[in-house]
Please model this.
Amino acid sequence: MSELVILLIPLVATFLVCVPLPKRWPMGVTVVSCAALLILTGRLAWRIAGGETLVSTLHVGMLKWIAVDALSALILVLIAFVATTASIFSVGYLTRENLTARKLRLYCANYNLFVFSMLAVPMAAEPTLVWILVELTTLCSALLVSFANTRGALEAAWKYVLLSLMGAGLALFGFLVLFAAMQAAGGGTYTWLGLLAAAPKMPPVLLQTAFVLILIGLGTKVGLVPMHTWLPDAHSQAPSPICALLSGVETTAILYVILRLFPVMKAAAQSSAESWAIILGLISVGVAAFLLLQVRDYKRMFAFSTVEHMGIILTAVGLGTSAGGYGAMQQIVAHSVTKSFCFYAAGAALMAVGTQEIAAVRDLIRRSPAVGASLVLGGLAIAGAPPLAIFLGEFAILKAGLAHGRYIVTGLLAAFIVIAFFGVMLQVNRIVFGAPEDEQPVSLVTVHAEGEQGVPFRLPFSCRLALILGAVPILLLGFYIPAPLHSLLALAGGALFP
Amino acid sequence: MSDATNHLLENLNALAGGLFLLAAYGMIAMRQVRGCLNLFITQSLLLAAAAALLGLRHHSEHLYGVALVNLISKPFIVPWLLRKTSPAEIYTRREVNQALNIPTALLIALALTILAYFLGLPLSNAVAPEFRGTNVPIGIAGLLLGAFTLTVRREAVPLLLGILAMENGAFFAGIAISRDLPLLVELAIATDGLIIVFIMGVLTRAVQQHVGTTAVGELASLREAPTEAAQEEEEAK
Model:
């Protein structure tokens, strides 16, 4: 029962980090548990890519609602990967903050709980249970977002919790209506598979209402425009490793729940799911692309780029073909690994210069070549430059759109992607290569307070390790997709449109 | 059970629904934080009563379970948890400047209720006849009014209660249309509500400690263009 062990590890780690031992203990436990998770989920995904399907054989209580297929295995591996690199990055990031042992234990306990809640979302197969787990991801991460306890962090955390829970309230009603639809269709077990079987007989009114409620409710947490207002706040105020988790995999894990409804809608008598996805997706991409042009804070910039990429993935799914599904899966993988890397680079930049304001940072490449170079790589990768991972994903999606004859959708999507590319690269270029202005603004003085000018900034070893580990898949997936990953992507994309 | 008894039970359920809606209105209009909490407790008790009445009507043990879970968790554990986590003076607070004045807010709430009726009608018609009734429109109204509460209130506790009121609304409709949801799930959802109270209570305390206010709705320093207040704060540092 390796899938049960996956859920147990972060829970055990949560208890272990609470043991009052020297300061290295909680971070060490967290890194080890995340690495173990990466190995276990990787093995699980390997088996599933080889054609096995795993449905729990346990029939006790809630355990009978655990099931893993290709789509969930893909999300699990991504969560474990980002959790591992983020925990390594946390080691160096938190050392500089000089936290008390208690505060450090709090961080690690919350971190492990958050990882647990995210891993549980794709593993649970009962929709209302999934809803509870989605709520848990919000609640477990709230205190991590507010971790710095500054005015900004607290405000961001409050907005995050309030809007996510408000969306979850709508989604709860959606899941109850879905249950009613299932009963109206003659019942069966209320799981994702059961829904698929019952879909053709469901009353269309109930199914449509449930879909729209869940799309809007959970879409709030995914950051779809116009429900995205909390996202740039929370994803910019949290500590950088947490931003990587929030932006890289939490949004994806919630989007996964929405994606689960697409095959159900496809099997139903009549469905407008794909139009909804394309409209909401394109609006998100478009609005985020234009907002990217006018950001003033580089962490907010990466947060808006998350909104953009969630929109791209949703649009790809809305194409409704298996090629679109494959492209969406590829984009999900590429976005998770790239966005987490971007936030490590942003975190490193924050450590080097002490401010998140784009206007206050210039000529970063001279002050710290390593940080400047990784910010450039992150910017290029997330904007979609070849030959990096995101480029292949976006290319696959645009190709699928053209092959399907959706010229307007594809054209708009391509235009927005280009605008976003310029938005991101413009800001990154300014930060890294921009010449320092002659008359230095007042804020620049405070910037240099962190490290005296002339003294080169040394990035802690663990942060460098996290950056290197994070860069591997970005570079690799840009020109080569390993065979097991390919079959996993194909299976997961195929699960969307059977 | 005879037809007359069934009829009586259905009418009592409808009465509970009417009062449920009234409590939702009260939570929008009530300025006192403590009054708001009392209204929320009343609303939860009415939800429990409606679940028990429907359980009696349809002989559903599952609905008794829902009633029991609601009876214990919301009126008792929620206020206790709030007192444990959030600062004590939060109850004595009175909200003077809401986003909208009370008559306007109530008029919008009225419009939302009418909207909920029209949204609920097709849903009600799609389920089997024995599930039809007033529960679905009232539940949707509760959901929408809860969401509306979140947009007009500024104090932490009424905002938190707005979230829980949304859940109450979803369940008020849920007890009519999805009766046989596993009780385990129901219990998990109730636990989840308690975690919401705990986390938001802790956040409220942190906001009060570090920012010095519990009117969290008025925090607005994060946006694209830095506001004057935020700039002043930067300079003060």
